[in-house]
Design brief:
The protein has helices spanning 16-33, 38-55, 65-86, 106-125, 128-139, 144-151, 155-188. It is mainly alpha-helical.
């Protein structure tokens, strides 16, 4: 008796190790941008990769692997936020520590941390749907069509959510600049 035929997708699917090695940074960034706190990101990323391990054989290649992974990240982040509420925890999407790249000098490092903090504040103020579109389009560089496919929404919805997210982003940026200007003015007085 011969072994059962492997699924037709088995030859097309990458190994779990290949997916993990290549996409862990993408999953980590996606979870953080979807509101998962830094302290919870490792456990939540593990949850994502447990789903990936279970369902990788079902990946059919019709969409990009990153698109499929982002949908899993969306579900896991949403579930995580729901569970935080049940546990009576405050799901503060604001991280305890920034994930900026190490900088060669203190001034550059401070500027990078401030910019990252501003981005995180803006992302925190967006609803999850707008945040997802903004993260994929503006931060991951996906096209509108890829974002629509990734989130399984019409392209018009992508455009409206992106517009809404950009409004929040620019309003947050303007507010931060005004506050920074007041801070500098009060130091000079």
């Amino acid at each position: 008796m011969s072994p059962p035929d492997p699924s037709p997708n088995a030859a097309l699917s990458p190994s779990f190790r290949e997916v993990y090695d290549e996409f862990f940074p993408f999953v980590w960034r996606s979870l953080r941008r979807l509101g998962v706190r830094d302290a919870d990101a490792e456990d939540t990323a593990q949850e994502v990769f447990l789903v990936v391990h279970r369902r990788l054989c079902e990946f059919d290649g019709r969409a990009k692997l990153s698109t499929w992974l982002f949908r899993i990240c969306m579900r896991v982040a949403s579930d995580h936020q729901r569970r935080a509420h049940v546990r009576r925890e405050v799901s503060d999407a604001m991280p305890g520590s920034e994930l900026s790249d190490p900088a060669p000098d203190a001034e550059t490092q401070t500027v990078n941390k401030d910019a990252l903090r501003m981005l995180e504040v803006a992302l925190f103020k967006m609803d999850l749907d707008a945040r997802a579109v903004f993260a994929l389009f503006e931060l991951e560089g996906m096209s509108g069509a890829d974002v629509a496919a990734s989130l399984e929404i019409p392209i018009g919805t992508v455009h409206s959510r992106l517009r809404r997210a950009r409004e929040v982003f620019f309003r947050t940026l303007a507010r931060a600049r005004r506050e920074q200007g007041r801070s500098v003015a009060s130091e000079g007085a």
